[in-house]
Amino acid sequence: xxxxxLVRQHADLVFRVARRVTGNDADAADAAQDxxxxxxxxxxxxxxxxxxxxxxxxSRNAALDLLRRRSVRPAPAYGELADPxxxxxxxDQRTEANEIRHRIGLALDQLDEPYRSIVVLREIxxxxxxxxxxxxELPLNTLKVYLHRARKQLRDAIRRSSPELVP
Amino acid sequence: MTPLPCHTLDAxxxxxxxxSDAASFEAHAESCAECSADLAASRLLQAEWDRLAAIQAxxxxxxxxxxxxxxxxxxxxxxxxxxxxxxxxxxxxxxGALLVALAATALWMRQDTSPAPSLQASADTPVAADTRPxxxxxxxxxxxxxxxxxxxxxxxxxxxxxxxxxxxxxRPAQRPHVAPAPAVASPEQLVGIPAPPAxxxxxxxxxxxxxxxxIADAQSHARSTISTELGRAAGTLTETSVF
Lengths: 167, 243
Fold this sequence. Notes:
Chain A is an all-alpha fold. Chain A is built from 7 helices and no strands. The model of chain A is unreliable at about 80-85 (pLDDT under 50).
């Protein structure tokens, strides 16, 4: 596969991962562009079965580099509310779907690393366990334990914030 | 059918359960408030993950990144060949260049030392002259039997000859390019050894220059390859260190 094709194939993944880290589309686009340049330069030397995980890692690093250069902490993608239950006060300003989305986003933002990256790579990007372990350099069993904990924490957060939806 | 325990939720969500086990878990969840709530929350989460997974890169991002990549100084279109292959290729080129250089040098030496027997004899002559009366420079020094003539029979002749000149050794004969100008009698002429033909010398010099050029090219290529690989290694370290 040529470098150009590699960039086109993984551009969406790279952007989504960067978006998850930076918390907004503009910064995500900047970070994703840097990441895609790296993918173009080095991606063809990565074994094909590892390219997806490698692209995710490059994107995450590019996003963290961007934030570090600006001396900015990663911004939550869904807002700065610390307690998901506080979001209930805004329910009347949003549609129900948006409200659920917002609460899930808050719960995701409250996950520490590497839990959040694990959830993003597994649930959103659909990477296999082995790929995630490779990307985050974690032992496979540790990764499974972390994912189990992260899922439980997210479920608990949703159950607390949306008791009307989760009996 | 025995309901599965609550901790199989993750396996259920990952689709790792068989159809019958999945059905068992769903049946269990209907009667287990905890699993039922977790399952409902998981479905809400899954809907959001699906939505986030559909987000695409902004239009123009790819083209902009490709332009940046091609414009970046010092970067070339990556070659898809594995690193090991490139390193091996550089090694082959270096070894090949060295072999060519050795072959050219050997050829040159062979051409230049073709009258080796007489050269050897001439080289030995001065040594013998130290212990015996000097031989006449004009007399060809060769392996002919007349050289075995007793010294006493040659002495009268030798006394009338000019002062002895040190006969040339093999080394000067191997370096025709530093030989005296043709106007002056060369050592080879003095001992009767024909100088190598000028075209042979020129050819040997040309081959030597070619070999040296190949070696220089191979060294340059190896240097650039090593530099590139070091850059890659440094980049990889930088990327991984963030994690």
